[in-house]
Amino acid sequence: MVKRQSGKASKPAKGGRKAPPAKQQPVSSKRPAGSGKPPGQDRMASSNRPVSPRRTANSEITTPVSRPVRSEITMPLARPISSEKTVILRNLRTTQTKRKKGRWLKAIRWLLAACVVLGVVASGVVWINFSREADQHLTMFSRRVPPAHTKVLDNKGNVIGIFANQKRTVIPYDDIPKAFQGAIVAAEDADFWTHGGVSSRGFFGAIYRGVKSLGKDRSGFSTLTMQLVRTVTEKRERNLLKGGLTRKLREIFIARALERIFSKQQIMEQYANEVNFGARHYGIEAASQYYFLKSAASLNIEESALLAAMVQRPSKSHDRLFSTDPAEREIVRNRRNYVISRMAAEGYLKEQDAELLKERPIRLGRENTGEEDIAAYAVEEVRKMLEPVYGAEMLMEGGLVIHTTIDSIWQQAATDAVQKGLREVDRLRGFRKEAVRYYENPHTAKDPSWQRSYEPGDTARGIIMGWDDGVATVRMDRAIIEVPSSAFAWAGRPALEELTSGAAPLFTIKEVNPDGTPKFLELDQVPEVEGALLAIDNRTGEIRAMVGGYNFRRSQFNRATQAVRQVGSTMKAFVYGAALSEGYTPATLVEDTPISFQLVKDPPRRIEIGRTHYQPKNIERDFWGPITFWEALSQSRNIPAVKALEMASIKSAVNFAKNCGIESYIPPYPSLALGATDLTLQEMTRGYATIASGGYKCPEPFLIKKVVDRNGQLMEERSTEPRNSQPSVDPIASFQLIQMLQGVTSSGTANGTSALLNWPVAGKTGTTDDYTDAWFMGFSTRVTCGVWVGLDTKKTIRRGATGGRIALPIWKGFMGKILKTTPREDFKPPPGMEWVDIDMDTGLRAGSGTRRMRTLAFRPSTAPLYESSPDAVAMAAEAKARARAKLNSEEQRMWGAPKKDDAPPQEQDFGMFDPNHYGE
Could you give the count of Cα atoms lying within 13 Å of 214 in the half-sphere of its Cβ? Predict the structure, then answer.
């Protein structure tokens, strides 16, 4: 055999003949069989060596495997591969492929096994790590000790006052306002009270929102418990791994651990004390002090909703709140209103209350330091009642929880109505130059009332720089406003002489610019006149709102409970109620003509003319002739009221008032018909509430429902259920009186009130001599509200200051807001009443000649029997004309003193009354 040579052709055999190359298979499998050119043929063809046409039988040529052998001999055509060999090759290839796949599957199995092992190890590490974190957090949780100051709550559980000797940053669960809890749960975690740390609804909701928005909505599913974990771990343990998945797993793990060990109340307490509210203020107490300058327990509903709205983006919300751009603050307000809407959707608020709250502007304590607590007078009343019982130390440090009857929404509406009404009344009294401040340098001076951002309705002092052609240039901090003389019109021309350069009167901001600076101003002043408002539940006597004056900081004297003032014509309701109880009807005619009564101390045997006289007069000093009870009360005519008192008897009127709840002494004199009786607003409100209840005596108005100590033990409680199962006054007389008082609000001295409110209401105006006191007492089926306006010293408010002009607007301002939160109901008549159309000129049944008709209610068998005729109408018209022309001579009549058994214990003095005394 020939030796194998790498890369060279074999030498030729003896005889000069070359050995033929050995047979070889094609090197490349890509070339098809029988193609005619074996590999390397082109290279061999290019050689100059001769090629032998034969090959010996025994010759063998060895060719390297790595590359084809160069040959100058043309290779024969490859034989075609049989189908059997093709199948074998295919099977071989399939087997090789399966072996490769098997190796891959085995590798994948080992990889998965390794991952499982690593996962178990990692889970163990995470479990140990998270367990340590959970233990640390739970330990910190259990070591906290709550403070113990006393809270005063409204009827919904919101804190309206605090009794404490010191303020604390960390507060217990009971001090966290119910409104804040509802707001934060509604806005951040609606399932908080039911889930176990992780909300499935929140989880799938986040996925749905993300898919629906194509990834744009990236809102998470963190519960309040998870947020608490995040806040605590990020603040206290910053060295922990903060990867997204790891952080979320940690939150879920610790959140579920917290939920297993601690109650929802404890978690809420910790959350409220840890959450960030912006500007490095953590915890609701710190935030409340910073934003509102008061304790968190005193936050009202809209303030709580605002803080809950800030939790999502605390730093950004803080910057927007204190931005000079109103649009920035409006963003925060919209977010607050969203939270309020969520509270209504989740049942924490009524829809009607939510709509009222959304209308309120954002009021920050740092901007309005002159504002006071929402129910300052009511809270002070609570303190005065409980301090003698429990002692000052217990009240301030005992951790009591005092539940009151106050409705904070009604209370805010009452405060707003009183302050607005008193400012308007005080304007009518004229401008007071002593209320103006003066600055030597108006260009650089700064007034404490200036704030960074204003809302319409705010008040602030403005420094007058000068006047030019009837226009004042006013500076408020950096804002310069041109104020026309029309904005000073109410003060009169003499006031303009006082408002020179450097003067700083009070202004009301009517409109603001987009940058939050004042745009339009109007001259204003802090009122000197005072007022009071009291609203109670007709059936239970619960006090829903109490305002004792214009400003509690200025005067702590509560004019709703402490001031004893003449009640004026509001007393007429009890007079006519007594007459109706005695069998008279709303259609009973009484003469509105001049009269004079003789008065004596003892029941006389002989009348001595001229001894003592009482001569009532109408406020307009005119006369209307024959008039029905219904019209006499609705128009508040004085002479008919005195005659109605004479018809019913003083004793009957006093008893009727007592049965309605008036407990103070009522002098039994004819002048009581016109309100010559000194009573409190609270007593009068209770009396009218009894009438509104259909004759069922209203319980004594009260503020405190129950008192609980710091351990939850009940110390005292008052039932809120109506106590009286039997009416204290005749229900039929009570309903007839309600119908007459409805005439006051529809067409009488409070004309248009019912139509304005679009609600079934009734009431009575009241004015005393020399316009020293103005009243309005009114009610619906659910609530009775009384309003008083006057000066602390018994002086004239101003000429023409009647109850209908200055007290009624306050009443309408309050009732117009709160009636929407009560059921709309009509006054229901007792069984057996008869309804008859009455001619208001004659007091007979309406007939062919009737010009003025009204449908009135009568007790059985007391309605007029005859119809009014044209002749009767003509006679009534003639009598009215004579009275208006003052052609009637004065009638003189004796009025005897009450019997001895009816007389009051003290000595009577009829001479103390002005015979010309009159009310409205």
Answer: 0
